[in-house]
Amino acid sequence: MSVAFVKEPNEDQVEALPERDLGTDPNFVTARGLALIEEALSTHEAALEEARAAGDKIAMAMLNRDLRYWRARRSTAQVATPDPEGETVQFGHDVALRRAGGPIQRYRIVGIDEADPARGLVSYLSPLARQLIGKEEGDRFKINGAEAEIVGIGPEAVD
Questions:
Q1: Of 18, 43, 17, 34, nearest to 112 (Cα)?
Q2: In the chain, count of helices (H) and strands (E)?
Q3: Which of the 8 DSSP states describes residue 133?
Q4: Which residues in 73-112 are b (16+ Cβ under 10 Å) and which e?
Q5: What is the pLDDT of residues 38-67, one digit of tens each?
Q6: Could you read off the pLDDT of 78-110 as tens digits, one per residue?
Q7: Which domains does the chain have, with CATH numbers?
Q8: Given a cut of 50, is residue 10 above it in pLDDT?
Q9: What is the pTM of this model?
């Protein structure tokens, strides 16, 4: 085989990384979610400067990709707050649930980037949030095959 058609690796060349998926759903965020996006931007910008100073091309490529993602998320962010007079579950609300015979569990409905189910922060696109939105205190519904009841709705933070 002729070496004329063999591509030699170039140390200055970094493979193009695939873009992070932005999704097609609206980018609803809480005020906290917007602050987290701003924080991610600051952190990534500082890390990019460090990578530039170190000449780390791979880190620079990864950070540039992540910065494109966070800039897009910031530019499309729509801060949404629950209606304080509303009696139904809305984006940004905390919801207290009691499953049959179990302890009360609290969830907050938040944006995609803010979601952290282990901390009770669920994306508004999650199956749980979709079941909760529009329901009132006292409403019952099935979750994972078991019945649950909404025992509280409010703007309190889950953290």
A1: 34
A2: 3, 7
A3: T
A4: beeebeebebeeeeebbbbbbbbbbbeeeeeeeebbbbbb
A5: 999 999 999 999 999 999 999 999 999 999
A6: 999 888 888 899 999 999 999 887 889 999 999
A7: 25-79 (no CATH), 94-154 (3.10.50.30)
A8: no
A9: 0.80
